[in-house]
Specification:
Layout lengths: L8 H27 L5 H21 L3 H21 L4 H14 L2 H22 L4 H84 L5 H28 L9 H13 L4 E7 L7 H22 L3 E8 L3 E8 L17 H12 L3 E7 L2 E9 H7 L1
Parallel strand pairs: 1-2
Antiparallel strand pairs: 2-3, 3-5, 4-5
């Protein structure tokens, strides 16, 4: 799944703030060495600048796990040299603890924090006679660093999760808008085709029949010529109208039978890797254009759902011609879903609800049942509904 770069901008800002904090802690060590004229101030300043430089490089380049380990190991080595030189490296060790807690797995991070704390205590014990405060300070710094580091880690994860959710909602809304627009266009094309079929085409067909009957009557030669010309003009207009209706119908039906159109739809959907087969049961007979268009659209939508959402290994599309009904069944072995969401206005079931509405407009029956391992959509168009459509 492709994620837009903007999804991670919030997390990047949080990480940038953390690294700025670590760099500021390192600068404090540099300033103390310069202002307090500590021994080895030159080396301490150089190593502190090197620490900040390695940190910046790591932020930009440490993308893999190995690179991240090398980066943190380099920072730890520089800190250790600073601590041995006598710098007040506790500030940097606190920054290291924050980096360990946010960049490593929790168990590994705790081991690294324990090692850093042990080094701080060891150096403090060897250099300060009254080392009790050093031990307490080191332990307290480690605990505070762990708590703050875990806080940063939780904040990173929560911000990323929320931004992924927002991006997913934005993408879903865009997909729904496209589906809604496409469904509206298809419904309008089908409505126009049906209106043209029921008005202009039927009217031209009736005119052609009446003129053909008039040609059989005894007419004056001039009238017979005009009637024949009128009949040919009506026939040409009817042919043009039928071509217009065909152009408004689904492209898969153009020049093909219904079974061929459905086979083409199943083959195109199956090219995505799913096994989608078509079975035609019974002897085919002509169906109204609106019903054939609806069946093609239903199979297009159902197979699209199988490929995109069902995670199925195979699906079977069955077209059944009976004496009094034509049926369409689409069954897959996918993960299924809760069909109760179709009755929830807030659910994203637009595609299935569109199918149900399309079937209902033509007087058919639509049903769906689903469970893990099996989802079945069933459509029935009674012959009485087809007669009304004609």
């Amino acid at each position: 799944m492709k994620i837009d770069r903007s999804v991670f901008q919030g997390v990047a800002r949080l990480r940038l703030g953390l690294h700025v904090l670590v760099a500021v802690l390192a600068l404090i060590v540099l300033l103390r060495a310069a202002l307090l004229s500590e021994p080895h101030a030159g080396w301490i300043s150089t190593l502190t600048v090197l620490f900040i430089g390695v940190q910046v490089i790591g932020v930009a380049a440490a993308r893999t796990r190995t690179a991240r380990w090398s980066w943190l190991a380099s920072l730890s080595a520089i800190w250790l040299v600073l601590a041995v030189l006598g710098a007040d490296a506790a500030y940097i060790s606190f920054g290291l603890i924050l980096l360990f807690m946010t960049e490593l797995l929790p168990a590994t991070a705790l081991v690294a924090v324990t090692a850093v704390t042990a080094v701080n205590i060891g150096i403090g014990v060897t250099r300060v006679p009254e080392w009790g405060g050093t031990v307490i300070g080191s332990l307290l710094g480690a605990v505070v660093g762990i708590v703050i580091g875990l806080g940063f880690r939780v904040l990173f994860d929560e911000t990323e999760r929320r931004q992924l959710l927002i991006e997913d909602l934005r993408r879903t809304r865009a997909e729904l808008a496209v589906q809604e627009r496409t469904a509206g266009e298809l419904a309008e094309r089908q409505r126009l085709a049906q209106e043209i079929h029921d008005t202009v085409a039927q009217g031209l067909s009736s005119i052609q029949m009446l003129l053909h009957a008039a040609e059989a009557e005894p007419l004056p030669p001039s009238a017979a010529t005009n009637v024949a010309m009128a009949r040919r003009t009506a026939a040409a207009g009817l042919a043009d109208t039928r071509r217009l209706i065909a152009a408004l119908a689904p492209a898969d039906l153009t020049g093909r039978s219904l079974a061929e159109a459905l086979r083409r739809v199943c083959g195109r959907a199956g090219s995505a890797g799913d096994d989608i087969r078509l079975i035609v049961d019974g002897t085919s007979y002509p169906l109204p254009m609106a019903v054939e268009s609806a069946l093609v659209r239903l199979v297009q939508g159902a197979t699209s759902n199988v490929v995109r959402h069902a995670a199925a290994n195979q699906a079977v599309v069955t077209l059944t011609y009976a004496d009094d009904v034509v049926c369409l069944d689409v069954v897959d072995d996918g993960r299924g879903f809760d069909v109760a969401v179709l009755d929830d206005p807030a659910a994203h079931g637009f595609g299935l609800n569109t199918m149900r509405a399309r079937v209902g407009q033509l007087g058919g029956d639509w049903s769906i049942e689903s469970a893990a391992g099996r989802t079945a959509m069933s459509v029935r168009f009674p012959l009485s509904a087809m007669a009304a459509d004609r």
